[in-house]
Design brief:
This protein has 293 residues and is α+β, with helices and mostly antiparallel strands. The chain is built from 11 helices and 7 strands. A 5-stranded mixed beta sheet has the order 5-3-2-1-7. A two-stranded antiparallel ribbon has the order 4-6. Helix 2 links the parallel strand 2 (46-52) and strand 3. InterPro entries: AadA_C, NT_sf.
Length: 293
């Protein structure tokens, strides 16, 4: 499914700029996330995924960062420009597939302050690429190059679960102030742990709500309705309900991993900074499609 034209002008302009900066090194560029999975919500990011033939040179990294600092909307969103998230992978780092994968460049608004002070994204182990690669292969709009499924290897369901379980502690620790995102992301993790398939937040919530105890179902319904723009979801006085839901969902996810024979145990991190958990944690109240489909 392609992005709706009225939603895509910023994405098209950004994609054109990315294509020009990356030049002959670019093998494929893809729009994914909410833009191609039911439409951008008010809080949605524009999510782009680029595959390149070789690691980016320093001047290319700087050109990308300078361009994105100018074109990406700040968070929290205060104008028409949406936040942009760009992930760049070197094809040989993800084909053939292995876990944990490595990203070559990541831009997201949660990193703006670092970039404004001159830091540049560096290659790093990035378990979240497990989920992003699956999302891009399964549901993306091709902006340059062949379809993503022709360029990227499929990701084993066991590796999806490893990435999800590895992100659970950080996700749950960040629930306060980001309740909607955390509740819906847990729902999607749960569905993926059971099925090996990555689905949208709204679809995951719809699939689970009838199976939940009444109190947990009410929390999930509120989060889904807020995500869809049906209600102004207010979480200030729901700390107890949210804490109860997150504990319940975490246990269900871990149980699902055991039941399907996928332990979700990741290998030790090889050193260096731990990458931001893009699938599991977005800026507070954001619909970052790193994980927030």
């Amino acid at each position: 499914m392609g992005a709706q034209p009225d939603q895509n002008s910023q994405a098209a302009a950004t994609a054109q700029a990315v294509t020009e900066v990356l030049g002959d090194n670019l093998a494929g560029l893809y729009l994914y996330g909410s833009a191609v999975a039911g439409g951008l919500r008010h809080d949605s990011d524009i999510d782009l995924f680029a595959v390149v033939e070789g690691s980016l040179a320093g001047d290319v990294r700087k050109s990308l960062v300078d361009m994105l600092l100018h074109t990406s909307g700040r968070w929290p969103r205060s104008g028409p420009a949406r936040p942009v998230e760009l992930t760049v992978v070197v094809r040989d780092e993800v084909v053939p597939w292995r876990f944990p994968p490595r990203s070559d460049f990541v831009y997201g608004e949660w990193l703006r302050a670092e970039f404004e002070h001159g830091q540049l994204p560096a290659p790093t182990e990035d378990p979240d690429l497990t989920i992003l690669t699956t999302m891009v292969r399964d549901s993306s709009s091709t902006l340059f190059g062949p379809p993503a499924a022709h360029l990227l290897d499929p990701v084993p369901a066991s590796d999806l679960v490893r990435a999800i379980v590895a992100g659970l502690p950080e996700l749950i620790a960040g629930a306060r102030g980001d309740e909607r995102n955390v509740v819906l992301t847990l729902a999607r993790m749960w569905v993926t742990a059971e099925s090996g398939v990555v689905v949208s937040k709204a679809d995951a919530a719809a699939a689970l709500v009838s199976r939940l105890p009444a109190g947990h179902a009410a929390v999930l319904r509120l989060a889904r309705a807020g995500y869809l723009g049906e209600v102004a979801d207010e979480w200030t006085y729901r700390e107890t309900e949210v804490d109860s839901f997150t504990a319940y969902a975490e246990q269900q996810i871990r149980d699902a991993c055991k039941a399907t024979g996928r332990s979700g145990v990741s290998p030790p991190h090889s050193g260096g900074p731990v990458p931001h958990a893009r699938f599991t944690v977005a800026p507070a109240s954001s619909d970052s499609d790193r994980g927030s489909v």
